[in-house]
Model the fold of this input.
Amino acid sequence: MKLSLVLAAFSLFTTTQAFAGAANADLKCAGKGITVEGSVPGDLGEWDFKVTKSGRSARIFSVINQQNGETEENSKVVVADYLHDAVWTLSADRTKDDYGYVSMYALPKTVKYAKIPNGYRAKFQAKVSYSFGEFGNQNENETVDCRLQYQI
Done:
């Protein structure tokens, strides 16, 4: 009986541990007339963020519909996150809703990285290139100040 309880508790503990730990990173960037803000991929394959300029927003997302369990998305996103080595990039191509793209990279000399319990926090300046129908499909380039936090 005791062995069964121990095995059941161990099984529950290991199962919980296997599913724990998936999270996105929270990104907040602002520059002259532009913001990039929301949830970007950490180690979870969902994202939902906006690029906002002059009161107009372009939304980039891939989320699970909680009612039917299906993925709803309008984009593909790739993130290279090595902030402990002063490297961070994000590239997103919107595949629906007027198309468009945003590409960002941290300026390595500006990265300030700190570990926190179960994650990290970083501040950096980033170069941002983007083009969306909401902004007239013009290629724009900006420098923004960013804060990124990842925590399980």
